[in-house]
Design goal:
The complex is a heterodimer of chains A (116) and B (112).
Chain A lengths: L2 E4 L3 E5 L4 E3 L1 E4 L5 E7 L5 E7 L5 E3 L5 E5 L4 E6 L8 E10 L5 E5 L3 E6 L1
Chain B lengths: L3 E4 L2 E4 L5 E7 L5 E8 L3 E10 L2 E4 L6 E3 L9 E3 L8 E8 L7 E2 L3 E5 L1
Parallel strand pairs in B: 2-11
Antiparallel strand pairs in B: 1-3, 3-8, 4-5, 4-9, 5-6, 7-8, 9-10, 9-11
The chains are: A mainly beta (116), B mainly beta (112).
Chain lengths: 116, 112
């Protein structure tokens, strides 16, 4: 069965410094991986997705993630944090469900705080 | 406006009462989902639907009922609410079910 582990429950950075949110996955085959973001009192929004094309995936708002099969990782990065990046981030793996569609399996989330 | 809307945004109910959470999408997406979000658990799938009149259980279906008589609506009913069902509930839709989902803004349900 597929699973994801987000290695940090909270990350705190200063505005203008790099962001690194870590995610490891477990999969018996080549997975589809996603990062979703949830701002306070909002629904989840897709940041980016990996579906076995380029290993470096660019998403919205300057975020990107690199798929590393040898390390089973899909870490999310951004060169320079902005105050508006403060949110909860979910690493997600797609698993083929019995109904024939891809079920999303969510990590527990990483809360990113950005300080002035 | 186009999109996926959930109602109500907030709901307080008493133990044992029946409550229905509504979800409506305007894209005619085939797939719709209900998740609950609890601290330390991320999001867990309650039920999903691949098309009108086709529904199936997710990871945590006990105590919930769904229906999908029309493509655009996917209500979630708690038949007899319990305190353990206090949570934030998210509805989502997907055109193909491949993993790109659009989420509603959520319903915060408190069972007292």
């Amino acid at each position: 069965a597929q699973s994801v582990t987000q290695l940090d429950s909270h990350v705190s950075v200063s505005e203008g410094t790099p962001v690194l949110l870590r995610c490891n996955y477990s999969s018996s085959y080549s997975p589809s991986l996603f990062w979703y973001v949830q701002h306070p009192n909002k629904g989840l929004q897709l940041l980016l997705k990996y579906t076995s094309a380029a290993t470096l995936v660019k998403g919205i708002n300057g975020f990107e993630a690199e798929f590393k099969k040898s390390e089973t990782s899909f870490h999310l990065t951004k060169p320079s944090a902005h105050m508006s990046d403060a949110a909860e981030y979910f690493c997600v793996v797609s698993d083929l469900f019995s109904g024939g569609y891809n079920k999303l399996i969510f990590g527990a989330g990483t809360r990113l705080a950005v300080h002035p | 406006d186009a999109g996926i809307t959930q109602s109500p945004r907030y709901k307080i109910t008493e133990t044992g009462r029946q409550v229905t959470l509504m979800c409506h999408q305007t894209w005619s997406h085939s797939y719709m989902f209900w998740y609950r979000q609890d601290l330390g658990h991320g999001l867990r799938l309650i039920y999903y639907s691949a098309a009108a009149d086709i529904t199936d259980k997710g990871e945590v279906p006990d105590g919930y009922v769904v229906s999908r008589s029309k493509t655009e609506n996917f209500p979630l009913t708690l038949e007899s609410a319990t305190r353990s069902q206090t949570s934030v509930y998210f509805c989502a839709s997907s055109e193909s079910g491949e993993g790109t989902y659009t989420f509603g803004s959520g319903t915060r349900l408190t069972v007292v």
